[in-house]
Batch of 3 targets.
Target 1
Amino acid sequence: MEKTQRIIYLLLGCITSLSAQRIPQSYFTIPELSSSYLSTVDSLESRHQNHPNDLQTLENLGDIYGAYYQWDEAQKVYARLVKKDPENFRFHFKYGGVLGVKALEVSRIQSVPFVRPMKAAFEKAAALNTTHIESRWVLMELYEALPFFLGGSSSKAQQTVEEIEQISPLEGALAQGFLLAKQNEITKSKEFYKKAIDWVSQESCSSLSNYLQRNQSYYELGKALLFLNQLPEIAICCFSFFIENYSSKEGLPLAFAHQRLAQVYDQAGNVKQAIWHHQKAISQLPSVQDDLREWDGFLDLEIVSFPEN
C-alpha cells in the first residue's frame, strides 16, 4: 500500500509539473457555439454517416470540435482516426494534443491516465514524419518535464532539440534556448536566442516562413527580439503573423500576443499602435500584464509593462 501511495504521489508531482507549464483554459477566449458551428457539425456528421470510410470528413469534424474547444468530442473523433489509419502522423499528433488539453482540464488524479498515451501519440507522430517540428517541440518539453519512470529524460530532450536543428537551424536555436531556460542555464540560453536573432537579421519578414514551421515559434522569436531589443520590424512581423494564424491549438491566449505587440510598438515609439494593441489585449484578458509575468516570463530579463495611463 505504501509503495502504491508513493507512486501516486510521484505521478501527481509529474502532473503538477506539467500543469505549471500550461496556461489554464480560463485564460482563453472560447468561441460561442453559434448556429454556423452547429450547422457545420451536423453537415459533417451526416456526410460521415453516408461515407464512413471518408477519413477526411472525420478529421474535419475533429478539427471543428477542437476549434471550438469541444475537447471530449474531438478526443473521440481522433481516437477513431488513429484506429482507422494508424500510419497517419497527423491523427496521432492531434490525438496527443487533445489528450494534453484533457489532462489539464480535469483534477490532478484524473490527469494521470492521460500522460502515457499522450506521450506515445506524439512519439508516433514524430516517428511517422521525420521532418515534423511541432511534435518534436512537444516531446522536448515532455521529456524535460516528466519523471524518469514515465519516460522523462534530459538526454532525450537534448536529442530531440538536435533533431529539430537538423530540420531547421532557426527552430533549433529557439528550441535550444527554450530548453536551457527551463534548465535555468540562463547565460547559455541567451546565447542561443542571440544566435537565432543573428540568423534572422539576414532575412526579411516574408522569408521567415522558409525556416519556421510552428506558429508559436513566431511568438517565441518575437519575444526574444523584444526583450533583447533587436530588429523591431521583425518582432512586429512575428507577433502579427502569430495573431493572424492563431488557432485553438496554441499554448497561450491571443491577448498575450497583442500585449507583446504593444510592447514592441512602445519601444519603437509608435504610441498609437501601442495603445491600440494594449487595449485589444486587456479587452480579451483584463489581467494580461500580470498574467504575462506569471505565465510567460522570459529568462531573467524584466518584462516591459505598457503604462496604464
Target 2
Amino acid sequence: MRQVTVRQLQIFVEAARTRAFARVAERLHVTPAAVSFQIKQLESMVGFALFERIGKTVLLTEPGTALLGYAQTVLQALNDADQTLRALKGLSGGHVTVGLVSTSKYFVPHILARFQAEYPGVAIHLRDGNRREIFAAVGKGSVDLAVTGRPPEELGLDADPFAAHPSVIIAPPAHPLTGYDSLPPAILAGEPFIAREEGSGTRQLMDDLFQGTGTSGRVTMTSSSNETIKQAVMAGMGLALISRHTVGLELSLGLLRTLPVEGFPQMRTWFVVHRRGMPLLPIHRRLRDFVVERGQTIIAEMERSYAALNEARSLSGPA
C-alpha cells in the first residue's frame, strides 16, 4: 500500500461511485484503458480483487468496500490540506458544503448570497435533509457546516447560536378563528391539524403544545414537506404549527394568516453546527463567523421586505 498513488485512489473512488470504468475515463479525462490499468495496479499492490465485473458494470468486492472508506479519507485530507495552504497564501477560494434542515432552506440562501458577494471565489454546495440526516453528515465530515436547531449533546457537535426561530399557528384567511384578537391554546384542541412527521423539531413543538393544554391534537394529515403543509392549509384542510420563516411570503400576499394564540410565537434558536474536535478550515471558519455575526440581521431584512410587500398590497386595495 505504501506505493499507491493519489491518482490511483482518485480512479478507485470514482469507479466505486459510478460503477463504470467508461464514466471514470470521461470524468477524469483519461482513456478507459488507463483506468483499467490503474485499477489492476492497485489490485496488485493490495493483493485483492477490488471490483467484480458484470458486463460493463463493476461492483465493489468486500476488500474493495473495506478500502473505499480509507481512500475517501485520504483524498478528503489532501483536499483539506490544499484549502488550508491556499488560504494561508491569501487566496479567497475554497469549497464549503453546507447542510440545511428543511426549514432553514427558506433563509440560508439569502445569507450565503451575501457571503458570496464578499467572497466570490468560494464554491458552496448545499445539502438538505431532515435533522437526523444532517447531523449524521456533519458527524461523518461530509458536511462542513450546517444550519439547524440545537443538536443533542451526545452527537459530539459544536453549535453556535445566531438567530431567533419563531413558530406560529397558520390558518387559511377565511378561517373563523382569524377574527379574534387573542385565543387560548385550549381552543385549538378540536381543530384539525396538518403536522410535520414524527421526530421533527416542529412536530415535537406541536406535541408539547397539546400536552401543555392537557389535550391531544387532532392530526388529520402529516407531511415531511413544509410546502405541502402550506398548500394543505391554504386549501382549508386544517391548521398547522410551522416556522414563521417558511411562510413570510404567503403571509405578505394574504394567502395565509397567523392565529393570535396566547404564548405564540413560540421561540427557539437557530444554530450553525460543525463537528467537534475537527479544526475548521479558514474558509469554513470565515463562513461560520459570518453566519453568527450577520445571520440575524439578514433574516430581519428579509422579514422587513415581506412586511413592505404586505403593506403595498394593502394600500393597493382589491384588484
Target 3
Amino acid sequence: MFDKIAFRIQGSHIEVEGQAFPLGELTADILNIMPEEFDRLYALSGNLGKGKDQEAKDGIYALLKDRRLFQLLTVNSVRWDADKFREIVGDIYSFNQTLFWFIDRFLMQLKKLDPENYAAALYDFYTDPKLDKMMVNFFRDPMHSFTLFDNIEVRFIPMEVPGKPDNYVIYEVYSSDTLQGFLKMDFMKAVMAGHVIRRCQNCKRFFLPTQGYKTIYCDRPLTDNPKRTCRQQGAKNMAKQKAEGNPVLRGYGMAYQRITADKSRGRITEEEWGAAKRALADIRDMAKAGRLLDREAEECMDKDTLYASLHITRNGGR
C-alpha cells in the first residue's frame, strides 16, 4: 500500500501530503471504522494468498478509500502487495481495539481536561491490572499486537513559512513504515498538545472536539433526522433528564401537554392557549426563582386552576 508514511508536525497540527490537520483528527477517523466494517476487512484479508488477491485488495481498498488518511496515501490498489494489506488490517484491529478501552474507560472519565491529566490517564491505563484484557497483544492473538515500540525516523528541517517570506520554523519531519506507528504518533502528539479524542454519547462514534472540550456529543447529523445534530439531540435529552428529576419542570411539561391537547381538539382557542402557555411559563420561572414553593407551583399549574385564573371556559366537558 505504501512503503512509508511521511508527515511533519508543527505546533498542534500534523501535515500529510501537503495537507494539515489538527493533531488527532486523522486518528479519530480511523477509530470510526465500525466492527461490522472491520469484519468485512478481516474476511477479505483472509482471501489473500488464495488465488483471490486482486479481488481481496479491491474490496479492502473500497472499504478504506473513504478514510481521509487513505485518500492522501493511495492512488489505486494495483501496486499494493498482499503482505502490506494484511499488515494494515492487523494494525487497524490492534490500534482501534486498544484505544477504544483507553478513551472510553480512562479519558472519558476525567473531570479535568489538560495534558497532565491525559498523561496520568495513560499511565493508569498502562499499569492497570486488566491491561492484558484491554490491550491487543501477541499472547491473545499471535496475528495482531498493539506494539509499545515503533520504528519512527525523524529529521529536523528548517523551512520557510508558507506565505511569509524570510520567516522560518523548524519542522519535525517523520516517516513510519507502519500504519500503527503513524496513528500512535498522531494520537500521542495530540494528547501532548492538549487535544482529546472523545466518544459521542449519542452516535457512539469518536470525534475531536473543536470547541468545548468537555462536550460529550459530536456535531454529526443524525442518521434518522439529518436536520438535527448529535449535539442538539444531546441538549434535548439532557433537558428532558433534568426535567424528569425536577418536580416543577416535570409539572410544567405535563401541564403544557394538556393545554396543547385541548387546543388541538378545539376545546380552547388559539388565543386562550397562548395565554395559558405564557401563564405556565411565568409560574415555572417564579418557582425557579424561589418565589413559589414546588407545591404551590404544582397547584397553580393544575389545568382547572390555571383556566379559572385566566377566565377560560373549556368546551366539551371537563
